Amino acid sequence: MKVQDSVIAITGGGQGLGRAMAEFLAARGAKLALIDLVPEKLDEAAVACREAGGEARTYVCNVAKEADVESTFGAILKDFGHLNGLINNAGILRDGLMVKVKDGKVEKRMELSQWQSVIDVNLTGVFLCGREAATRMIENGDRGVIINIASISRAGNMGQSNYSAAKAGVSALVPVWAKELARYGIRCAGIAPGFVETEMTASMKPEAREKMTAGIPLRRMGRPEEIAHAAAFIFENDYLSGRMIEVDGALRL
Ligand code: NAP
């Protein structure tokens, strides 16, 4: 699929990887529908996309809320007339051990709310946006591409029961949707990034960052544009569907 003039929705498009992917695709002439929670961040991202050479509109929407998602995609279709792509990128972290033990006693456990909030955004949000995008593409007669952003943590990372389960889940949806939607001209693929320099990882303690970087065979964190490059490749390669691309500097958990 040509990126030029394609209408592509990106969740979590206001900052980090979502914004980097939006700017990268804007530079190739895409029309971006940026979805996020905070209007100011969305506005800044839209300006950056226009400066990069693309069109951009913004939509405040909580991807974990069914009604929000339905009305947002309705508005995108009304504004642009078409939908050719969705990048399911919005995500949160609420890390913690399932059980934290001291002197043989469990002193802390992952709260159900901690589990549920990550599942709601990172897994249910992906389902809701994927279902809505597919519905709109099919009913509008648009060919398109859905990309789920997972993580290296899908393999199972200590302290991330909630996040690892959600990322394994969105990876599993990739071949499911690729098989179900191929007949409508919709491809689906995923990207599993390693550690990338964004606001999400900037919040890590410096010691933890250093230790983590030392374990990456390429000896550095990924750059957001390297993930964006993989997303553009998925859009442009019409025989790529049902698979995950791992962009992680050879790090393995
Ligand atoms: P980020 O900087 O925290 O950006 C995520 C964006 O999603 C934020 O703007 C956030 O808004 C938004 N968001 C959160 N909950 C939302 C909701 N319910 N509805 C709509 N938008 C919501 O994260 P990032 O590092 O760019 O990560 C983007 C994706 O890549 C995530 O799925 C993450 O799991 C994945 N990933 C990142 C890395 C990495 O190293 N950075 C590695 C592997 C995978 P607020 O800030 O206002 O909450």
End-to-end Cα distance: 33 Å
What is the H level of CATH, i.e. the homologous superfamily? NAD(P)-binding Rossmann-like Domain
Largest sheet geometry? 7 strands, parallel
Number of strands: 9
Number of domains: 1
Kindly summarize this structure in a few lines.
The chain is an alpha/beta fold. It contains 8 helices and 9 strands.
Task: Describe it.
The protein is α/β, with parallel strands linked by helices and 253 residues long. It has one domain: Rossmann fold (3-Layer(aba) Sandwich). Helices cover 46% and strands 19% of the residues. It contains 8 helices and 9 strands. The longest helix has 29 residues. The mean pLDDT is 97. Bound molecules: NADP nicotinamide-adenine-dinucleotide phosphate. The site of NADP nicotinamide-adenine-dinucleotide phosphate has 28 residues, from helix 1, helix 4 and helix 6.
